[in-house]
Prior knowledge:
Blueprint: H1 2-22, H2 34-46
Amino acid sequence: MRSTIGIIVVVWLVIGCIAAFQRGYFGDDRDVSCKSAGDTALTIVAGPLNYLGANPKIKCDDVKLPQPSK
């Protein structure tokens, strides 16, 4: 039973990675930001739902991250 659930979870996440790749989220030319990282993560977690019309997006405009000291 555990191995079946594990296999389902792995297949689900692999399908999500394929969807993220097809949307171009793994390209080298993208700036890494809260929005791009969040969109990529949500797309992977959504898995097969991406192919049923889900297009998860995250809004990070109001997130203030601390800056490293110089």
